[in-house]
Structure formats: C-alpha cells, structure tokens
Write a structure and sequence with these properties.
The chain has 275 residues and is mainly α. It folds into 2 domains: 3-136, no CATH class; 146-274, no CATH class. Helix content is 69%, strand content 0%. The protein has helices at 3-19, 21-37, 42-52, 54-70, 91-113, 120-136, 157-180, 185-192, 207-219, 224-245, 255-274. The longest helix is centred in the middle third of the chain and has 24 residues, at 157-180.
C-alpha cells in the first residue's frame, strides 16, 4: 500500500461522488474495457485498480449519498445513487466519499493478503453500505412487505425469466472468458453496458451474473456449464436480495455487489474448501 495508491483511491471516491455512484460503475466499465484493449498503458491500469474500480469509488459515493441526506440534510434520498453530489457543492460530502474509498482499499488489500479467493471488493461494498444504513439511514435492513411484491404472490413466470437471463448471460460470459483468457472481461463489459439503462430503464444489470460466472470458471478450470449454472443462480439471488434489503430503503445496499460477494464466498467454500 503506497501513498500513490491511497491518493488515487481518495480522488476516485471524489470523482464517484461528482458523477454519481451508478454512473461511476458505468465509467469504470468503459475505462476497464479500454484497459483490456490497451494493456500496455500502465497508467490506465493504475487508475482503474486504485481509483475507479467499483469497490473503491462506488462504495465511497454510496456512503457519501447517505451522509449528504441524513447529516448534511441536502434535498435527496439516502438511496439516490443516480444523483451527482456535485450539485450541493459541499466539500464534506466529497471528503466522506474519498475517505470511505481509502478505507475500502485497505479492507480489500487485507482480504487479498489473506489469500482468500473471494470478491473482497464486494465484501467491502456490503460492509460500508450496511454501516451507512446504520449511521445515516433508519437502521432497518429487511423489507417487511415482500409478500406484497407480485412475483412472490402471483405467476412464477418472472422467476423463469430471471433464471433464463442468468443462464444465457453466464454461458456467454464463460465463452468470452475461454476465448480471451481474461476472467474479468465479461464483468467489465457488463459494467459498460449500463449505458443502455439510460436509453431503456428496463435494461437489466448483468455484472453480478458475469462476475459470478468468472469466479465459477476459475474454480472449475473453465467449465462452461458451471459458468451458466452459477450465472443463473446469481440472477435469482440478486432478485431476492434486491427485494429483501433494497426496496423502499433509506439507503442503498447494492443488490449486484451483495450478490457477487455472497456467491463468491459460496463458490470459495464449495470448490476450494469442501471439494
């Protein structure tokens, strides 16, 4: 951990607050795809790895959004991750985002040093998002009205849809990984594809599917079947997590990031410890 890395992490958190947490993920995806296309440019890799990678910058912006709402009492919801915090011109909000990004980097570095093959970045997002809900939100984590959500009471066709989507995206991710040799390229592409959400709000995020598929490919030495199955499971798990902890919520706990963290831990336990 160098001063250079910490400085970029801090600035990455500030940039995320300026553009908005959701938009930061899109920006990171675009830059990471460029990094894969031009691997010889080390600066791109540094900026992504230390500053723009979602577990650093996104985490800072999520916490800063909750802080801006609860503590600074700016006119926004604590879960408004699409909002650029630049509109408030509040240095304290930017500082919170930068400092949380630095703390996130410390945590991820620690997890990596322990040699755990889990998504430390997502674990960091989960931890700091939960702390934000406790200190800057209402402290309530579970949606008490899940039964009112139509997919839990009516037709089961929606579950078939999400399963099929995950199966297809997971299989495609596995194919890209096999051809490119890069287990994270599908994840980067999924983040970049968030740009389509601005054209069609029903466009679904897939980065939890493709990232989980990447972990499955690594754990099974390149099994396309495992990639597809774990992609399907990630899609279903993300739907439940979103309904359970991020619907009608005071702050944002990211369903895709939570799914990636949970699924990576399950894959680690199953393939690296049990099997």
């Amino acid at each position: 951990m160098t001063l250079y890395m910490l400085a970029i992490a801090f600035c990455g958190g500030i940039i995320a607050a300026l553009v908005g947490a959701f938009e930061e993920c899109l920006l990171a995806g675009l830059v990471m795809v460029a990094m894969c296309a031009f691997p010889e440019y080390a600066m791109i890799s540094d900026v992504v790895s230390y500053g723009l990678f979602p577990y650093i910058a996104f985490t800072g912006s999520v916490v800063a959004t909750a802080f801006a709402s609860k503590v600074r009492r700016h006119e926004l919801s604590g879960s408004a991750i699409l909002t650029s915090l630049a509109k408030f011109q509040d240095v304290s909000v930017l500082l919170v985002s930068g400092l949380v990004a630095v703390a996130s980097m410390f945590l991820v570095t620690l997890i990596n040093k322990l040699g755990l093959v889990i998504d430390g970045g997502s674990v960091s997002v989960i931890l700091f998002s939960c702390l934000a809900r406790i200190f800057f939100g209402d402290g309530r984590f579970l949606n008490r009205n899940m039964k009112a959500i139509p997919r839990y009471a009516g037709s089961k066709k929606e579950w078939i849809y999400w399963a099929f989507l995950g199966l297809a995206a997971g299989f495609m991710a596995g194919g890209i990984i096999q051809k490119s040799g890069n287990p994270w390229l599908p994840f980067f592409l999924s983040l970049a594809s968030l740009i389509f959400w601005f054209l069609e709000p029903n466009f679904p995020p897939t980065h939890h599917i493709t990232c989980t598929a990447g972990y499955a490919m690594l754990a099974t030495n390149g099994s396309l079947l495992a990639s597809a199955i774990w992609g399907m499971l990630a899609s279903l798990v993300c739907t439940v997590i979103g309904d359970a902890i991020n619907t009608d919520a005071s702050t944002h706990i990211d369903p895709p990031a939570t799914t990636i963290g949970v699924m990576s831990i399950i894959i680690y336990i199953l393939y690296y410890i049990i099997l």
